[in-house]
Amino acid sequence: MRYEVRPGPEHFLPPAAASMGVRLPNPGEAIVHGYIVPEEQAMDEAARRFLSAKVPTIFPGPLVLWAWTSTAEKKAKAIRHLFNVLKESVGPNQKPMLIPMPDYRPKYPKINPEVEINPNHPNLTIWHNRIDTCLFIGVHCHQANLTLKIVRGGTNCYTMAMCAQAGHEDAMLSFHDITVDHVIRLADKVRELKGTVPGPAAV
Fold first, then answer.
1. Cβ of 114: how many Cβ atoms within 10 Å?
2. pLDDT tens digits for 115-130?
3. Domain total for the chain?
């Protein structure tokens, strides 16, 4: 039976998806649950996941939080645009969040899970805020891979990743070689599907 990358909790040490046969996509492709799909299909799925989540959350990393290049600045503005569109598009029972991952130094147990995510203990932030769907963007690959495995192992959060390089097989959904255009396209897709995707019921 083929291994699928699905929300957990899987177990204490989930296997690396690559070791289970999940491969990275080629240009024009993305990964959804460990399967290679057309990029546009993944855009649609990502927007639907955001719109149907109770706490859709974006976790920007240092590659877009710090103005170290003009491209980083443009991506940061695009991410803010995506978040603003998400806020405008969700229903009253949803609570979109934007929580930064400014650096990778371990802070456990002093992390403030309301204002940042600690990549070495991401489950604390996800548990505290009851995050059920999240997007990693601007996170260095080695830290994203570590964090995504921890999230999959110990939470039921649906993880998505927008990677500037090869992508992340340990996310449930992953894009690669992303540009500012990818972020804007996802925002446009969220706006396009607004009202067509059932949101979560009130608790």
1. 10
2. 888 888 888 899 999 9
3. 1
- In this predicted model, what pLDDT tens digit does every residue of 53-102 receive, in sequence order? 999 999 999 999 999 999 999 999 999 999 999 999 999 999 999 999 98
- pTM for the complete prediction? 0.92
The CATH number linked to 180 is 3.40.50
